Amino acid sequence: SKTPVRVAVTGAAGQIGYALLFRIASGEMLGKDQPVILQLLEIPDEKAQNALKGVIMELEDCAFPLLAGVEAHSDPLQAFKDTDYALLVGARPRGPGMERADLLAANAQIFTAQGKALNAVASRNVKVLVVGNPANTNAYIAMKSAPDLPAKNFTAMLRLDHNRAASQLAAKTGTKVGDIKKLTVWGNHSPTMYADYRFATTNGQSIKDLVNDQVWNADTFLPTVGKRGAAIIAARGLSSAASAANAAIDHMRDWALGSNGEWVTMGVPSNGEYGIPAGVVFGFPVTTAGGEYKIVEGLEIDAFSQERINITLAELQGEQDGVKHLL
Ligand code: NDP
Question: Can you give the residue ranges of the Lactate/malate dehydrogenase N-terminal domain (predicted)?
Fold first, then answer.
């Protein structure tokens, strides 16, 4: 049987963590033949550490055959030791009266420390996924704080936006979500993201042709996908957690095991593709194989799309300017 791989998860006692860990341990992320060791990080706070103990008891009680070990940590230098995969879920939420600059600064502190810790102790091939918001900027901060690791190994989660868009398009076209191909989401994981179905097909038919309604695209589809997180909070009284955890599983599974030629969306550092300045962590269409992702190049960007891409890029660059002095 395979050697276990090490999977670090931060914010492990939070609500996304609770929807995520059991699925990683059951083999849904890295395959039903791949044993895993979970290295869980929580803040030192007694309440968080106790909650983490409870989650670990439940993991034990699931008796997952693939779960080769579970560790609880409060120090990233221990949690990230030799880790092959790191899912950075924990982040500072916006508190009452907290300004955007304060939020950026609080998260810059967390992700600078975590980037440095990954740089010091993680596997040299560690694959990092940032879920905690602002995800793209947090990934950028961690990447900049880890100069000895390949920058391309730092990614941000756009997959939830991708999956939300796929679900809306399946409903609109009356087809199955699994039949939808070549969808992508450009930019920041925020309401400014641009879900782009111009190239997408369902059962081989062009979705753009099937929908044939640019007003629906601009006035219904994009706002619905962009504000879906807020709609779930309004309905459930809590933020989306199971769907966020599911998207994290999808992102890591496809990165590790390959997308079989299909497009998926990942937030990855640009190399200048589509005029996005190098280093900006941006949602792109990618294909994955052999543990590597490749940005899909050469797509035509029309005027409407360019305008949308410019908006989400400007927001991201504003966030990055806001943390520059902290790096
Ligand atoms: P959640 O588990 O619900 O959310 C964690 C992070 O994921 C938040 O930043 C949240 O952003 C983000 N997120 C990204 N996409 C989504 C989405 N679609 N829906 C909801 N959230 C999304 O938060 P909890 O408060 O339950 O848990 C966070 C845990 O992290 C706590 O246990 C805390 O102690 C821990 N923590 C750990 C740190 C560490 O390990 N060093 C550092 C900081 C916190 P948003 O805030 O925008 O909803």
Answer: 5-154
